[in-house]
Design brief:
Helices cover 40% and strands 22% of the residues. It is α/β, with parallel strands linked by helices. The chain has two domains: 4-134, 3-Layer(aba) Sandwich (Rossmann fold), CATH 3.40.50.620; 145-258, HUPs (Rossmann fold, 3-Layer(aba) Sandwich), CATH 3.40.50.620. The strands form two sheets. It has a five-stranded parallel β-sheet with strand order 3-2-1-4-5, with helices on both faces. Helix 3 packs parallel to helix 5 and helix 9 packs across helix 10 (245-252). The model is unreliable at 107-116 and 245-265 (pLDDT under 50).
């Protein structure tokens, strides 16, 4: 269940747009939203006062915008903090017991900025809570195709459960299941028995069937980052769920693929 969402808003990017796209999903209706803005240390007290005033105005506008559709939210609260953004995001996520953290890339254009040496990377590595990273240079679309990069880890199973939860009640929703196996040869895809019977994907297929979700399976070999990004592009997914920082950082290095995953027409 996702009932409490923390939106870490830097005032740039499309994180709020992605939040609204999530709020349109039946599973996310009537969530409690907390909008956080953190002002980092400034050179002077006067500069800090100015930044705090700007942050307060930003939060007021964001809360007003989110409250326009009261049928989709239970409540919207704002928090303005001083300090290191990476620390404050983790701290507030614990304070509000967030089920999901949404962050953008703070004005930096490439996914390398999100998963490289950044606030987002720090939070992603240290927070035990699910996190949605939103590129600044995307066009946010309605969400109906979610891809999960699977392996046999508990983290991957949690990603699967989250994807299934998000797709419940979505018209035309489809779950894309991908397993990149370096020991296999060739590529099997679709709902063919070969892909469905893959030991890693078989339990995920069963879970999708139990929930009545349409699904498609891909089993492939090769470089994880290139294969997953290429599969996501081929399937035209709107959301890619990854199970580890190691895999996420690896994929981020392959920017010629990742730039086309989301938001491309």
């Amino acid at each position: 269940m996702i009932e409490k969402i923390l939106l870490a808003d830097s005032g740039t990017g499309h994180s709020k747009d992605m939040l609204k796209a999530l709020m349109a999903l039946p599973a996310i209706h009537y969530a409690n939203i907390t909008v956080l803005h953190v002002v980092p240390p400034q050179a002077s007290a006067e500069a800090m006062r100015t930044k705090l005033q700007e942050g307060a105005k930003l939060l007021a506008a964001e809360v007003e915008d989110l409250l326009l559709d009261r049928q989709r939210v239970a409540s919207v609260n704002s928090i303005l903090r001083e300090g290191e953004p990476k620390d404050e995001v983790c701290r507030v996520a614990e304070e509000v017991d967030a089920d999901l953290i949404i962050m953008g890339s703070r004005g930096l254009k490439r996914l390398r900025s999100i998963l490289g040496n950044s606030v987002s990377q720090y939070v992603f590595q240290l927070s035990p809570r699910p996190m949605l990273l939103v590129k600044d240079d995307i066009f946010v679309k309605n969400i109906n195709r979610v891809m999960v990069a699977m392996n046999d880890s508990e983290a991957a199973r949690q990603c699967l459960n989250l994807a299934i939860f998000l797709l419940q009640g979505v018209k035309g929703g489809q779950l894309i299941l991908a397993h990149v196996n370096p020991e296999s040869k060739g590529r099997s895809e679709g709902t063919s028995m070969g892909a469905e019977q893959d030991p890693v994907l078989a339990p995920a297929v069963t879970a999708a069937k139990q929930r009545g979700l349409a699904y498609k399976c891909f089993v492939s070999t090769g470089n994880h980052r290139e294969v997953i990004c290429a599969l996501a592009e081929d399937a035209n997914v709107q959301m890619l769920s990854l199970f580890s920082q190691e895999l996420s950082a690896s994929i981020a290095k392959s920017l010629q693929y990742i730039d086309r995953i989301q938001g491309a027409e």
